[in-house]
Amino acid sequence: MYRIPQILLLLFLVSLLVLATNQAFSWTAVEVKSDPLVRMPGSQPSPENNANIEAPTRCTNCHGGYDQAVEPAYNWQGSMMAQAARDFLFYACMTTAAQDSIWAIGTPNAVDICERCHYPQGWAEGRSDPPNASAMKSSDFDGVHCDVCHSMYDPQFEATYQGSREGLGDAYWDETNQSGTPSALAADTTYAEDSRLATQINLFNNGAKDQPFFVNNQPPQNYVENGSGQFFFDDVKGKRASFADASARHDMFYSRYHKSRYFCASCHDVSNPVLANLNDNPALTDLTTELSPASSYFHVERTFSEFMLSDYGQDGGSAGIGPFAPDQFTTSKPGNVIATCQDCHMRDGTGKGASQRNAMVRPTDSVEHPNSGQPIHDMTGGNAWVSTVLASAVSGSPNYNAVNDSLLNQGSAVLTLDMNQGLGIDPAALLAGADRAMQQLQLAAAINELTYDDLTGTLSFQVQNQTGHKLISGFPEGRRMFLNIKAYSGGTLVEEINPYDDTAGTLKGLDALHYEYDGQGDVANPAALAAHERYDDALVYQMEPTSELTGETHTFHFALATGRHKDNRIPPKGFRIEEADARLCTPVFPDGGSYTAAEYAGGYDQVTVTLPVETDAVVVGLYYQTVSREYVEFLRDEINGDASTLTGTGAGGDPAYIAQTDPFFSQLKAWGNTIWDLWVYNRDVTTAAPFLMASASYGSTAGPAPECTEPGTPTGLTATTQKGKKIELNWQAGAPAPQLGGYNIYYDQSGKMSYVDSVDPSTTSYTDTGLSRNTTYCYVVTAWEDCDESGGFTPGTDIESDPTEVVCAPAN
């Protein structure tokens, strides 16, 4: 736990006192690139930054349109990376953060931390001023796109080149490791380029202003990771990637950094530079952000740190759990261990990285990297809600919805968001990405070792974290996971722990603990807990920040957060608790509890609850939500000025709530009502509605209706090449066969599945057309039953069988 220092509180309170005795005055803008409060190491916004970032349209013409299962373009377009600057939750959050920043420091510049990772090209090219995204244009709206990532170089390039960065010595992942080989020669070229780039990076702090950041190719001693949006961009058009034997029409640099876990730290260890740079040195003579790693100050997100504290983040990695175990999961590492973020979030597929005839089929055609497949650029997390809703706002989408279209396409003059900028949205890719997100959630957890003592009513089980970070991880605001436990006696429900009110769109009992509901938006407040229901906060897994600035024990103001009130998210396997304080990752229990040594070692939560002794059957479900009703209400009220979490006048001299009156927010103020309307209308869309990640049961309950019995897995799947770039699939129905549902056809993606099409239950064949010649396609098929009688497959509601074995065939 960290606390805001007394000097900062004193300065803040003095500013409020001075302002209270004077007429309110408007805040004064400070250019972001000149503001020491938001300064972080690395390439700086133009003109100091000479990054030569190209739009993704220059990439997709070769890296897309030939194999949806493997190609970079289609999978990236279905990811939240590609939608980082179209994410409607982000816009509402950014608006609130800007208002908070003006209140706290007199400028909206804290929003710089948002723009760095959501508009990286626009930020690098100087369009983060003004810090309200109004200057962003064109491919800025493609978010974290191709050339943003493939222009980044490693600030620890000296250690990487010498072989000491990840304890690998000369044994870098899947290289022949001999002098004169492509990897060794290409690494020499990259090292020379990195050395040239290092001369362009200077310090900003007043103690050593404009002095070189790198000395002998080494950054400052304590600068060990470039987290929190600290980008280092090349200024030439050579693309950096992880293969030394690739061929292309453009220049290339072989990059070990791109297959390193440290690459992902750039945007996945997020801290607040404003509070950090005010922290111990309000005179700003030396900047904390240039002296310390981002993981050491003012926590916002810690996914990378969580990984580094796990067994997987140790040099050499570790064997995975469940579906990620070595006998089920393939990586390029010896023994199929997991050692990088990319192992799970950019799995190795079989295929080509480009459409050119001479593009290499990996891993089979590679001599230099014989174990590394083509990285699948799906980069999937657990957010299926935003992807699904974005796709529905595009005319012609399979899930097109006129209401969402009208809400999201109000235009840049109203929302800043312009859905048609850049590449725009490929709804099929987005829906495939949403489907992968749900698969990822179901791979992330398991409920194991469930036992029930019918003499004492004691129920015990483990919630197993199968990921490499906390379960759940990432942006904490409104994101939660919870256990729902139902106890039955003779088929009658006698107790339910953490019941969910579908109409109100939230957990029952939360209002008594944390929140007050105003009932706006034609959504009822949650019903009171019934006699057989109870709320258990210990079984709701989430991170709740606290703020000494606002005086809140639990705050949604992430830009004003100074600590953590609660963080009971389940640690990953091998979590080194003794090192967690340094990275601000230590679990926090409001009641003062902690995980045990065994739980840290195994990466699980041991749960024990007492149920009524008459219980003879139990159903346990683990559910995930991307966003809560409570957070959306907070965003709406903060933007509309109907909240009371900010008090008095702010450091800028304005009233606390100015989004509806200050011209700075003219293209953002409509987000208050828009984000609420989007949630109200789409609260039943997974994963805003609770999504079942894992379940277990004891005894026998009434169970599902007979028509929703899980169908059997299809058998005998074959794939046959047909003339005209076609592949024909045939299979036999499993037992029982689907009655009201049908069959889903998927491309295999090294253990995950990318949706292709569906057929009705009477059809046991499918022809895939329009394929690319000399390309091999791999498939699986599932059967599904239409439990909600919607007429189409609804993940999380309808029941789907296990997939068939993978079959492959080439297209001619």
How would you characterize this protein structure?
The chain starts with 5 loop residues before the first helix and ends with a strand. The protein is an alpha+beta fold and 812 residues long. The model is unreliable at 5-25 (pLDDT under 50). It has 22 helices and 29 strands. The strands form ten sheets. Strands 11, 12, 15, 16, 20 and 21 form a six-stranded mixed β-sheet that branches. Strands 24, 25, 27, 28 and 29 form a five-stranded antiparallel β-sheet that branches. Strands 9-10-19 form a three-stranded antiparallel β-sheet.
Compute the average pLDDT.
Answer: 91
- Count every beta strand, where a strand is a DSSP E run of 2 or more residues: 29
Largest sheet: 6 strands, mixed
What would you call the shape?
globular
Estimated share of beta-strand residues: 15-25%
Helices and strands in order:
Blueprint: H1 6-20, H2 57-63, H3 72-77, H4 88-105, H5 112-118, H6 120-124, H7 146-149, H8 157-162, H9 182-198, E1 239-241, E2 252-254, H10 265-268, E3 270-271, H11 273-279, H12 288-291, E4 299-301, H13 303-308, H14 342-345, E5 348-349, E6 351-352, E7 361-362, E8 374-375, H15 385-392, H16 402-408, H17 412-415, H18 427-444, E9 445-453, E10 458-465, E11 480-489, E12 492-497, E13 500-501, E14 506-507, H19 510-513, E15 533-534, E16 540-541, E17 543-546, E18 563-567, H20 597-602, E19 604-610, E20 617-625, H21 629-640, H22 671-682, E21 691-698, E22 715-722, E23 726-732, E24 742-749, E25 752-759, E26 765-768, E27 775-785, E28 799-800, E29 807-811
